[in-house]
C-alpha cells in the first residue's frame, strides 16, 4: 500500500470513513511478535475474510482491534472514530471454544446479552428486548431452541446462538472469529445466509476463516496474514498462488489456479 | 418443637442462627458466581489470607474489637486476591499453583504472627486463634448487626449489577467488546467475596469458610439450569445450613456450631450430587442403565425382524445370528414377548403387529439396514448417517 | 558419590545421637547457676522461689497465654535442650507439649508429687486424655506438695545446693500455709447462699472443693474445644435461675464467650455483670505482685469475695 497517495486523496475528496482502518498495529507477547506492523483497510458493505496458517495472529488481530488484548503500537479507527466512540456500531462473535457451555442459561438469555450494551447499567431486559432477541434467533433458525439449556445444543447450534447474539447488537460492522469451524452443514448454510443478508443491508463483515477451500465462494475481500499482512484487497486480486505461497510456505496444496 | 421455637425466643440461639443464616445467604449468593468463574478456591485463599490480617490489626491497634479485626481480615484477603491476579497476569504459573502458593504463604505468615503474639507475653491476646475455627456460639446482637450491614451492601450490589456479573462470568471477552470494564467488575466481584469471608470468619473460621462459598452453590447447580434460580437456591441452601447447624448444636453440650453448619451444607451438597434429577449421579446411573437395556432390546428386535422376514424365527436361528447359546436365545425371545413384540412358543415364533411397527420405526430412525442374512449382500448394506 | 552419601548419613546419625544425650537428667558440672526452664508462669514463679540465687529460670509461657493450647516453637525447643532441668505442671495441662516432655528424662512434672487420692477425677473423664483435673494450684495446700518436686529435682542436678533448696522449701511452705488459712478466712465472709462462682472454663474445681464454693465453667477443663451453642444457653439458664449476679472472665481465655453468656442472661431480663478478671491458667505480668503465685491467689480471692459480696468491682 502506498500510504502517501492515499493521504493525498483523503484530503482531496470528501470520503466516507472506512469501517475499519488499522495502521502499524503490533502485538507482542514477551519478545515474540504475534502481529507486526499490520496495516489494514476494510471496505464497507463487503464480506471480508482473514486467512492464514495456525499461529498467524488472526484471532489476535480481532482481539487487539477490539481492545481485548493490549497492543504494543498502532492505531485503529472505526468509521473514522476511536473504539470507545464506535462501540455501538460493532458486533462480535467470539470463538465458540472461548466459553464454558455448561453455564446455567438458555439460548434466549445468551442472545439477550447482546443487548446489554444498549440497556446500560442497572436496567433489566424487558419485553422489547425479549422480542428483539427472539427475532435474532429466528434469523438463525433457532426459534424452537430459545429455552433450551445451552449445554444441550449441538456445536453448530451454539455457534448460531453466538451469531444471533451479535445480530441482536444491530451493528454496522461485525467481527466473527472462525464461525464455520466444526459446524454441521445446516449451520454452515445458515451462517452464510445471514452473512449475505447483512451484506444486502450494507453491513460490513470481517471473518477469521479457517478453510481455504471455501474462501472464494463466500467472500469478496481477502486479507492474507502471517504475523504481517502478506496481501489484502479484493478476493480475485489477492487469492493468487504467489500470495498463498508467501503466506503458507511451500506446503500449500489447495487447488488454487483453477 | 421447643427447639425450633427457641430460634425466636432464646437470645443465644436466635443470634447464632441469624449469624449463621446471614453467612449462608451471602456465601451462597457470592459463591454461585465464584464457582461458575472457576474461582471456588479463591474463597479458600481469601479466608486463609485473613489470618495475618487479623494478627496485624491486633498488633497495630492493640484491641480485639471485632470490627477492627474484620477490617484487617478483609484488607489482607483483598491484598491476597490482587496479588493472585497480578501473578496470574504476569507469570506463567498456572492458576492452581498460584492459589496454593498464596494460600499457604499468607496462612503460614499468619500462624507465625500468631505464635509471635502468643510468645510476646501480651496478656490481651487470648482469643485470636479462635478465628482459625470460628466461635459461632459467641455471636451476639452487635455481631449480627455488623454482618447484616456488610451482607446487605454486598447483596445490594449483586442485585444492581446482576446482568453485568452474569455476562462477565459467562463470556468476559464479549463483555469487554461491549465496553464493560471487565477488570474492574471482576475486582468488584472478588471484593464482594471478601465481604462474604469477613462475615463468615467469626462463625465458621478461616479453615472452613471455603465450604460455605462452594457447597451451597455446587448443590444449587444440580437442581436448575437457570442462573437466577441457582443463585436463589444457593442462598436458600446456605440459610438452611446455617439455621440447621445452629439448631443441632443447641441440642447437646459440647457440639461446636461452626463445624455443624459446614457439615449440614456438605450433606445437602452430597444429597444434591446424588439425587438431583438430570444431573444427579443416581439418576445418571439409572438413565445409562435404561438406555443400555433399551438399545440391547432394540437390536434384538431388529435381529428377530430380519430372521422372521428372510428365514424363520426360532431359538436356533436367533442363537446362530446373535452368536449365543439357544437357551439364551430362548430367554431373549421371552423378553421380546414380554414387551408384546413377538408371540409363539417352542420352535415357532413370529413378530406381532406391534413388533413389526416398532422394527420399522427403528430402521427409519437409525437409517441402518440390519446385516443381511446373505453374506453376499453384506457389503451392500447402507451406511449409518 | 556413594561413599560421600555414606559419610553424610553417618554424620547425621552421629549428630542425632548427640541430641538424645541432651535430654537426660545429669548433675551440672562446675560452680554455676542451674539453668532451669519452666512452662506456665506460675510454675516459673515456684521454681524461682525454691531455687533462689542458685537457679536461673526461664519461663516459656507469658501472662495471658493458655497452657492448654500452647505449642512449642523452635526457640522453645532450643531452650529446653540447653536446660539442665525442666519443670512443667503436668496432668496434661500443657496439652500440646506432653509428647515432647515424655521423651525428656530431665523434664519433671511437679504434680507428680501430689498423692493421687487428693486429685479430682471428674466422672467419665474428659476428651479421653484427662483422667484428672489439672488445675491443682488453686488448692494452696496441694500446691505446697509441688514445691517438694521442685526441691528434689533441683537437688538432683545440683547436689551441692540440696540444703539450700530444702531450707527455702520449708520457708515457702510456711508462707503457703498462711495463705491457705487467709483464703479460708476470706471466703468465709461470703454468706453460704452466695458462694457460687461461674467462670470461663472449669479451672476452679480444686478451689471450690477446698474452700467451700460451688463452681461452674462455660467451657470444660480444657479450652481446646469450641464453645457450643448449648453450652452458652445452659449456663445462661443456670445463672438466671439461681439469680447469680456476677460472672468472671479469665486472663488467658477470650472474653468473647463470657460476654455472650452475659448478653444471653440480660436478654432473659436478669442482671449479670462481669465480676472481674481472674488469673486461671496464667499469673499476671512479670514484675507485678500478680506475677507471682501468691499474688495471683490473693488477687483472685479479693476479686471473688468483693464481687460475690455485691461490691463495686468493675
Automatic annotation (TrEMBL), chain A:
PROSITE patterns: ABC_TRANSPORTER_1, ABC_TRANSPORTER_2. The keyword Nucleotide-binding applies. Keywords: ATP-binding, Nucleotide-binding, Transport. GO terms for molecular function: ATP binding; ATP hydrolysis activity. Belongs to the ABC transporter superfamily. This is ABC transporter related protein. Pfam families: ABC_tran. Residues 20-252 form the ABC transporter domain.
TrEMBL record, chain B:
Coiled coil: none annotated. Keywords: Cell membrane, Membrane, Transmembrane, Transmembrane helix, Transport. It holds the Pfam family ABC-3. InterPro entries: ABC_BtuC-like, ABC_TroCD, WH-like_DNA-bd_sf. The keyword Cell membrane applies. It is found in: Cell membrane. Its main location: membrane. One of its GO terms (biological process) is cellular response to iron ion. It is a multi-pass membrane protein. The chain crosses the membrane at residues 12-34, 41-61, 67-87, 99-117, 144-162, 201-219, 231-251, 257-276. GO terms for cellular component: ATP-binding cassette (ABC) transporter complex. Belongs to the ABC-3 integral membrane protein family. This is ABC-3 protein. It comes from Allomeiothermus silvanus (strain ATCC 700542 / DSM 9946 / NBRC 106475 / NCIMB 13440 / VI-R2). The lineage of its organism: Bacteria, Thermotogati, Deinococcota, Deinococci, Thermales.
From TrEMBL, chain C:
InterPro entries: AdhesinB (IPR006129), Bact_metal-bind_prot9 (IPR050492), Lipoprotein_PsaA-like (IPR006128), ZnuA-like (IPR006127). GO terms for molecular function: metal ion binding. PROSITE patterns: PROKAR_LIPOPROTEIN. GO terms for biological process: cell adhesion; metal ion transport. Residues 1-24 form the signal peptide. One of its GO terms (cellular component) is cell envelope. It is found in: Cell envelope. It holds the Pfam family ZnuA. It comes from the Bacteria. Keywords: Metal-binding, Signal, Transport. Its main location: other. Belongs to the bacterial solute-binding protein 9 family. This is Periplasmic solute binding protein.
Amino acid at each position: 500500500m502506498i500510504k502517501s497517495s492515499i493521504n493525498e486523496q483523503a484530503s482531496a475528496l470528501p470520503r466516507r470513513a472506512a469501517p475499519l482502518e488499522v495502521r502499524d498495529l503490533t502485538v507482542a507477547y514477551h519478545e515474540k511478535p504475534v502481529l507486526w506492523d499490520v496495516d489494514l483497510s476494510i471496505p464497507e458493505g463487503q464480506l471480508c475474510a482473514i486467512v492464514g496458517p495456525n499461529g498467524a495472529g488472526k484471532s489476535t488481530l480481532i482481539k487487539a482491534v477490539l481492545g481485548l488484548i493490549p497492543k504494543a503500537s498502532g492505531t485503529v479507527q472505526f468509521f473514522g472514530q476511536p473504539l470507545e466512540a464506535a462501540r455501538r456500531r460493532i458486533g462480535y462473535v467470539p470463538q465458540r471454544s472461548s466459553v464454558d457451555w455448561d453455564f446455567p442459561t438458555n439460548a434466549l438469555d445468551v442472545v439477550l446479552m447482546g443487548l446489554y450494551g444498549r440497556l446500560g447499567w442497572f436496567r433489566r431486559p424487558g419485553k422489547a428486548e425479549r422480542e428483539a432477541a427472539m427475532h435474532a434467533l429466528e434469523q438463525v433458525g433457532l426459534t424452537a431452541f430459545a429455552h433450551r439449556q445451552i449445554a444441550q445444543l449441538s456445536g453448530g447450534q451454539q455457534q448460531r446462538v453466538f451469531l444471533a447474539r451479535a445480530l441482536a447488537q444491530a451493528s454496522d460492522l461485525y467481527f466473527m472469529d472462525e464461525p464455520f469451524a466444526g459446524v454441521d452443514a445446516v449451520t454452515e448454510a445458515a451462517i452464510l445466509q445471514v452473512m449475505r443478508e447483512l451484506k444486502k443491508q450494507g453491513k460490513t463483515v470481517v471473518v477469521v476463516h479457517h478453510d481455504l477451500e471455501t474462501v472464494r465462494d463466500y467472500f469478496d475481500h481477502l486479507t492474507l496474514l502471517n504475523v504481517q499482512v502478506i496481501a489484502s484487497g479484493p478476493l480475485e486480486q489477492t487469492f493468487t498462488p504467489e500470495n498463498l505461497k508467501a503466506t503458507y510456505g511451500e506446503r500449500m496444496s489447495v487447488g488454487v489456479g483453477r | 418443637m421447643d427447639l425450633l421455637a427457641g430460634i425466636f425466643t432464646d437470645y443465644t440461639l436466635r443470634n447464632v442462627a441469624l449469624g449463621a443464616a446471614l453467612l449462608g445467604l451471602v456465601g451462597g449468593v457470592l459463591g454461585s458466581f465464584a464457582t461458575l468463574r472457576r474461582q471456588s478456591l479463591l474463597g479458600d485463599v481469601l479466608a486463609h489470607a485473613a489470618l495475618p490480617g487479623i494478627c496485624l490489626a491486633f498488633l497495630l491497634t492493640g484491641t480485639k474489637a471485632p470490627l477492627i479485626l474484620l477490617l484487617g481480615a478483609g484488607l489482607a484477603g483483598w491484598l491476597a486476591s490482587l496479588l493472585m491476579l497480578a501473578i496470574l497476569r504476569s507469570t506463567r504459573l498456572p492458576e492452581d499453583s498460584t492459589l496454593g502458593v498464596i494460600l499457604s504463604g499468607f496462612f503460614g505468615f499468619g500462624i507465625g504472627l500468631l505464635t509471635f503474639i502468643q510468645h510476646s507475653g501480651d496478656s490481651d491476646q487470648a482469643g485470636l486463634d479462635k478465628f482459625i475455627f470460628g466461635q459461632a456460639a459467641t455471636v451476639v446482637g452487635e455481631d449480627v448487626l455488623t454482618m447484616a450491614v456488610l451482607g446487605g451492601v454486598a447483596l445490594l450490589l449483586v442485585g444492581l449489577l446482576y446482568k453485568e456479573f452474569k455476562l462477565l462470568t459467562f463470556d468476559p471477552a464479549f463483555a469487554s467488546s461491549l465496553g464493560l470494564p471487565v477488570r474492574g467488575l471482576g475486582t468488584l466481584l472478588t471484593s464482594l467475596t471478601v465481604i462474604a469471608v469477613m462475615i463468615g470468619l467469626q462463625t465458621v473460621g478461616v479453615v472452613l469458610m471455603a465450604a460455605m462459598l462452594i457447597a451451597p452453590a455446587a448443590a444449587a447447580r444440580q437442581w436448575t439450569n437457570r442462573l437466577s434460580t441457582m443463585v436463589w437456591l444457593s442462598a436458600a441452601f446456605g440459610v438452611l445450613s446455617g439455621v440447621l447447624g445452629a439448631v443441632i448444636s443447641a441440642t447437646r453440650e459440647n457440639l461446636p456450631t461452626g463445624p455443624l453448619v459446614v457439615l449440614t451444607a456438605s450433606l445437602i451438597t452430597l444429597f444434591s450430587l446424588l439425587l438431583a434429577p438430570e444431573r444427579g449421579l443416581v439418576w445418571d446411573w439409572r438413565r445409562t442403565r435404561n438406555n443400555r437395556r433399551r438399545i440391547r432390546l432394540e437390536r434384538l428386535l431388529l435381529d428377530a425382524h430380519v430372521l422372521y422376514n428372510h428365514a424363520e424365527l426360532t431359538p436356533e436361528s436367533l442363537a446362530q445370528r446373535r452368536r449365543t447359546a439357544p437357551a439364551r436365545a430362548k430367554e431373549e425371545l421371552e423378553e421380546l414377548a414380554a414387551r408384546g413384540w413377538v408371540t409363539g412358543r417352542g420352535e415357532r415364533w413370529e413378530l406381532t403387529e406391534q413388533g413389526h411397527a416398532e422394527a420399522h420405526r427403528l430402521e427409519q430412525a437409525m437409517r441402518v439396514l440390519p446385516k443381511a442374512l446373505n453374506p453376499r449382500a453384506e457389503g451392500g448394506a447402507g451406511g449409518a448417517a | 558419590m556413594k561413599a560421600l552419601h555414606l559419610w553424610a548419613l553417618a554424620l547425621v546419625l552421629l549428630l542425632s545421637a548427640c541430641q538424645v544425650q541432651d535430654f537426660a537428667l545429669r548433675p551440672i558440672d562446675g560452680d554455676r547457676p542451674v539453668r532451669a526452664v519452666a512452662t506456665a508462669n506460675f510454675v516459673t514463679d515456684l521454681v524461682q522461689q525454691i531455687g533462689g540465687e542458685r537457679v536461673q529460670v526461664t519461663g516459656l509461657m507469658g501472662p495471658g497465654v493458655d497452657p492448654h493450647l500452647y505449642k512449642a516453637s523452635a526457640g522453645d525447643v532450643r531452650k529446653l535442650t540447653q536446660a539442665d532441668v525442666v519443670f512443667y505442671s503436668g496432668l496434661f495441662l500443657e496439652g500440646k507439649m506432653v509428647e515432647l516432655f515424655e521423651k525428656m528424662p530431665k523434664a519433671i512434672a511437679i504434680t507428680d508429687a501430689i498423692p493421687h487420692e487428693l486429685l479430682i477425677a471428674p466422672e467419665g473423664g474428659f476428651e479421653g486424655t484427662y483422667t484428672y483435673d489439672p488445675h491443682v494450684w488453686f488448692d494452696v495446700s496441694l500446691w505446697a506438695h509441688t514445691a517438694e518436686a521442685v526441691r528434689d529435682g533441683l537437688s538432683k542436678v545440683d547436689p551441692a545446693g540440696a540444703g539450700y533448696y530444702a531450707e527455702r522449701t520449708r520457708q515457702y511452705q510456711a508462707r503457703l500455709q498462711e495463705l491457705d488459712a487467709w483464703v479460708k478466712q476470706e471466703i468465709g465472709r461470703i454468706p453460704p447462699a452466695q458462694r457460687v462462682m461461674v467462670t470461663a472454663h472449669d479451672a476452679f474445681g480444686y478451689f471450690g472443693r477446698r474452700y467451700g464454693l460451688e463452681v461452674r465453667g462455660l467451657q470444660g477443663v480444657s479450652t481446646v474445644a469450641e464453645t457450643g451453642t448449648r453450652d452458652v444457653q445452659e449456663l445462661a439458664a443456670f445463672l438466671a435461675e439461681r439469680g447469680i449476679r456476677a460472672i468472671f472472665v479469665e486472663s488467658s481465655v477470650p472474653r468473647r464467650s463470657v460476654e455472650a453468656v452475659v448478653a444471653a442472661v440480660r436478654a432473659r431480663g436478669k442482671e449479670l455483670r462481669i465480676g472481674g478478671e481472674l488469673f486461671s491458667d496464667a499469673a499476671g505480668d512479670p514484675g507485678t505482685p500478680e506475677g507471682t503465685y501468691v499474688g495471683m491467689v490473693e488477687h483472685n480471692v479479693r476479686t471473688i469475695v468483693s464481687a460475690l459480696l455485691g461490691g463495686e468491682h468493675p
